[in-house]
Amino acid sequence: MAPLTYGYQPIPGAYTEMLAPQGGIRPHWQPMLQQLESHGADDIEGRWKRARQTIRDNGVTFNVYSEASSHARPWELDPIPLMLSPDEWDFIRDGLIQRMEVLNRLLADLYGPQTLLEENIIPRELVFANRAFLRPCHGVEPPQGQHLVLHAVDLARAPDGQWRVVKDRTQMPAGTGYALENRIVVSRTFPTLYRDCGVERLAPFFAALRDQFRHLAPPAEGAPLIVILTPGPSSGSYFEHAYLARYLGFPLVQGSDLTVRDNLVYLKTLSGLRRVHAIWRRQADVDCDPLEFRGNEALGVPGLLKAAAAGNVAIANALGSGAAETPALLPFFPQLCRHLLGEEPLMQTLPTRWCGDEPAMEEVLADLDRWVVKRALADTSSPPVFAADLTPAQRERLAEAIRDEPGRYIAQERTLLSAAPCWIDGRLQPRHAMMRAFVVSTRDGWQVLPGGVVRTAASEHSTVVSLKSGGGTKDAWVLARGQVTKFSLLPREGTTALPVRMEENLSSRVADNLYWLGRYIQRAEYQTRLLRTIMRRLTEETEPDGTPELAELLRTLSAISDQLPDGGGIHAPIEDMDRTTRFITAVVAGPPQPGNLCHALGQARRIGYLVRDRISQDTWRILDQLHAGMGSPLHHGELIALLDRLLLPLAAFSGMAFESMTHGFGWRFMDLGFRMERTVMSAQILRELLVRPASYETPVLDAVLEVASSSITYRTRYQSQAAPLPLLELLVADASNPRSILFQLDLVNAHIRELSSLPRLGQLPEQILATELVRFVERHDLRRTLETGADGERTRLAVFLQEIIGKVRELSTIITERYLTHIQHASHFAASVAGPGPAPTEHPR
Amino acid sequence: MIYRLRHKTSFAYAQPVALVYNLLHLKPRQLPWQTVHASRLEILPRPAILADRTDYYGNIETYCMVEEPHSAMTVEIDSHIEVRERTIGNAAAPSWEAVRNRVAGDLRPGGADASQYCFPSAAIPITDACRAYATPSCAPGRGAHDVAVDLMRRIHAEFTFDPTATHVATPVEEVLEQRRGVCQDFAHLMIACLRSVGLPARYNSGYIQTLPPPGQPRLAGADASHAWVGVYCPANGWLDLDPTNNRVADTQFITIGWGRDYHDVSPMQGILYGGGTHHILVEVDMVPGTLPDATIMQQQ
């Protein structure tokens, strides 16, 4: 067997991570490679295939276009970690810590005495013309003077082997969650390898981060409430927000979940307002407080900065800290380091010039091809321009733009990034790579994440490392000097129960989402059952004289999916097979429109994504499977296969939710939605199929039992052909049948009773209504509902079922108003509540 | 000169407002030439929070938050203010080029502060059109103050005061194109022109005393808030110029505060929940008066 490194060709000119210049394997790579060797290529490949499946199943995504789910791409992870020796790591660690300290002092000066500007240590333009410098934050002192709690640095290793800083990330550094997920996947794929290599663990870093939030939070009675503030799925790294929320046990909130009263920040929960003590914010400075900054009103919390200024909430990183990641500050780092710390920089910055400085601009323009041109200030995001890759005309235009407004550009030396081995096509191949590293401030110093997110280029010849252009990621392994401290914050596999604390902090928004998740899942299940019942009759010649009930079933499908076949009703489904198939395909595969199966499944997945931090990994996998394969046109046979495939996860979802979620308020809202939807669906199907009895009623009744998944129960109980009265008894009033309406209503009633135990609520109208509804069904004389009138219709049955549907809808409205509409933005409900808007202003004359 | 200044803003909403957060710039700041003897702010419904702070520019910013649901709100400020003649040095005014070249690195006190007013701001982008408009006033070697005074004169002569032509958010470019607007527009335009040639210029918010036409009585509440321009030159400090009236600010001007543009010092800005459509009524009275009596003094 050839060694794995056999035939590995270093990329000329680049530093080779794995190999020494003389050709041997670098010592700190040897233990890992030897171990890997013992697995053999086939085993590595097999394990890796399974790991990639896990990543997809877990829904790890990075949303490069900041658009909801559709453009999210799966996280590309390579199994071969980047190895870092203890000495190398010491150097990086010290450099990072120094960098964070300098930038923290920079922020303290800019938002304080501004001596750096008074004395012209840095060009004033970089601050005063910079939209990232937020004047309302001036004079606001963060707890313990920590503007930066978390700092990230993008590092590149130049051909000389030195790590150099490419960019600082101070505003809302992203990546810690991805680093953690990468580590978990790789270490589970190669458990022995990971254990035997003596790799520094990541968990202590996250413990330090959590402790730091607790430490910075203002004094609280009991444990401080720490939340993660996210802009939601519109953010590229929403996956990470939800992931870290679950990992750290911090509730994931959006701006509309918070409110500021009396300079205190509160989370709007079902049980009232709960004081928030610290916020790990994952959205831009200017989007955090629409009162002070002119950012996105819908994302922010008015008054947040005032609450921070009053010392009533710790926000990390501090609002305004985006100023420190201004690219044009990079060339001034050595000055800042000397001035603010009295030290020389430990780690060099990649040579960078700010063109606002005339000699620097001339240097850049004299040899433009040497440089990568970027925006100087953080006000616009535009991709870096590699001058050497431009046409002469483009290069001329770039030079002109720089001469026109030199202050708006920086140039960074184009360097050949080091090459790391990646597992591609069953062997090791070199790819250019960059690393993002992280530091957190602690009570008495700093802690660096031993590792980070390594990003790699898409192909061997690509020198650009970016996830947008199809690159991948890697884990970084730092070898420990001595014993590795074993320690994990991760809940053991399989235990996904929410901590009680999370349950108390259930926000109205999350409850609303869970409620609708329950409804959509059940809507999907009923339609799927109905569709399968129809499909079976279309394909199997079950009755010698055809299937007279088919037309009725199609009409029912049309009614409950709120969708008409093109050309109107279908009277002869078998003869009109084309139209029938088209109609069914439209309901199943889309396009989605409110009411149809495709829409229900899409909504279930979308909402599931919004509450990812609340549902288990397994539950999410089920939701994700539901959506897979939707949206493409289907053949007849594929339709049946798809429907069969759907029913299982739909049933599994209910089971999983019941078994793995604590039966607290969140679960209750989801089950409420589930039960109420099932009641309405059952009543609708009975109404469609039983009110106008046909002469051939038996096959219709059989179909009803099949849709309601009660055929076997019926047969074992009555041992006879289906008849209307026993069927109604079984599907409506049998409290022991989990498919009956009464069974659902009993549960609804129980949930509502439990919810009213929330503080500040007494005997409530919905309690009365739910109890009444149970009695109404229990005491109803079903025999009489089957009497037909002069027109041959069972009018009483229609009225009875309509009454149930109406009362359930009324109940839904009351519950929504009581618990769910504190959310001050448009929700799933038709009547949207006015969101925040700018107050009217006066026009001076 | 001593003035009594009353500024009342009334809001009426079609639908109830559940919650409102406001930042106010209504209390005049103390200045070497301006003493605020008393200033009383009354807001109805009564705010849950009402707190003053000094903002980045040294102005008084009032934070006010009303938690009580309401469909009407009034904000009324009543101040007694003394304004004295300003002393402005004009000896050896440096050329506009000298000011432009020096201000970024000016190490004198106030230099760093002034240099921030050279750059574009949210409401005042710097465009070629503004630079083109400014050019005729910028003869080589001309004194910085003379450049500013000439710009003021030209704007006053070439633009028409027309309250119907613009609204609070009309962009400077549009004002320049249609040559119409109100004080805020003219101030923004003049600032854009000054900054386009590298001179530091800031936006002043306040009031100007208006006199009734001869033979007619003064109408109560007919005054308005006003805006004008400050221009900086290192030797002499800030000179306040009013392009709407083509005059140097004097004792008929009351200053609330200043910033880079309207947004930094707007009388009221905020976020509200609910409200629907709304009406605003603004009443301003600026009348010569005497020092307030002891009772008002105590309430301050």
In short:
The complex is a heterodimer of chains A (845) and B (300). Chain A is 44% helix and 13% strand. Chain A is an alpha+beta fold and 845 residues long.
Query: Whole-Å distance between the termini of chain A?
Result: 86 Å
Query: Which structural class best describes the helix and strand composition of chain A?
Result: alpha+beta
**What's the helical proportion of residues of chain A?**
40-55%
Flag low-confidence runs of chain B: 295-300
Which structural class do you get from the secondary structure elements of chain B? alpha+beta
Radius of gyration of chain A (Å): 31 Å
CATH topology of the largest domain in chain A: Rossmann fold
Total separate domains of chain A: 4
Explain this structure to me?
- With 845 residues, chain A is an alpha+beta fold.
- Chain A folds into 4 domains: 80-155 and 170-324 and 438-454, Rossmann fold, CATH 3.40.50.11290; 351-413, 2-Layer Sandwich (Dna Ligase, domain 1), CATH 3.30.1490; 506-661, no CATH class; 663-824, no CATH class.
- Chain A contains 28 helices and 22 strands.
- Chain A is globular and about 100 Å long.
- Chain B has 300 residues and is an alpha+beta fold.
- Chain B folds into 2 domains: 2-84 and 265-292, Immunoglobulin-like (Sandwich); 96-249, C8orf32 fold (Roll), CATH 3.10.620.30.
- Chain B contains 8 helices and 14 strands.
- In chain B, the strands form 3 sheets. In chain B, strands 1, 2, 3, 4, 5, 13 and 14 form a 7-stranded antiparallel beta sheet that branches.
- Chain B is globular and about 60 Å long.
- The model of chain B is unreliable at 295-300 (pLDDT under 50).
- Chains A and B meet through strand 8 and strand 22 of A and strand 1, strand 9, helix 7, strand 13 and strand 14 of B.
